[in-house]
Amino acid sequence: MSGKLNKAKKFYKKTERSSIKAQNPISIVKTMVNELQKSMGKVIDSTGKESERVIRTKYFSRSLVIIYTLQTTLDFDKGEDLATKLFQIYEYCRQQLIKCFKEQVVEGTYKAINALENIFNVNIEANSNVR
């Protein structure tokens, strides 16, 4: 699994380098959050289906890489309150995703996806705190 994780990290770094030149930080974060929501949804959809174990593992790993990337791009110096709240939401997503993966409990992961949706539909551009 660590080989796939390294591959995912390289993919995201390559994507990040190529898209940073053309996009502002908020747009990059929104794209990553959208991809996180899709990946978490695939984990939910494949939960409890033994035939989709490989898919579930792939999107679980992908989700964790995205969460880690989102957490490490927060700039607590520029927007401490917003950065702290986003960190907490990302951490909630991580915890619920792990619970879904280990215990096959999907309700918290649905809530995490909805929380992301609610946060990023609010005018977050006003408080840009991404490096």
Would you kindly provide a written description of the structure presented here, covering whatever features stand out?
This protein is mainly α and 131 residues long. 76% of the residues lie in helices and 0% in strands. It has five helices and no strands. The chain has one domain (2-123): Up-down Bundle (Four Helix Bundle (Hemerythrin (Met), subunit A)). The relative contact order is 0.14.
Task: Considering the chains and any ligands shown, give keywords for the structure.
Four Helix Bundle (Hemerythrin (Met), subunit A), 131 residues, mainly alpha, globular
What's a concise summary of this model?
By secondary structure, the protein is mainly alpha-helical. Helix content is 76%, strand content 0%.
Task: Note the topology.
Layout: H1 2-20, H2 25-46, H3 53-72, H4 80-103, H5 107-121
* Beta-strand fraction estimate: under 5%
N- to C-terminal distance: 30 Å
Low-pLDDT regions = none
CATH topological fold name: Four Helix Bundle (Hemerythrin (Met), subunit A)
Total number of helical segments?
5
CATH class: Mainly Alpha
Order of helices and strands: HHHHH
Count the domains: 1
What is the approximate shape? globular
- The count of DSSP E runs of length 2 or more, i.e. the number of strands, is 0
Give the class from helix and strand content and strand pairing.
Answer: mainly alpha
For the sheet with most strands, the description reads: none
Kindly provide the radius of gyration, computed on alpha-carbon positions and rounded to a whole number of angstroms.
Answer: 15 Å
Helix content estimate: over 70%
CATH architecture group name: Up-down Bundle
**CATH homology superfamily:** Flagellar protein FliS
Provide the residue-averaged pLDDT.
Answer: 85
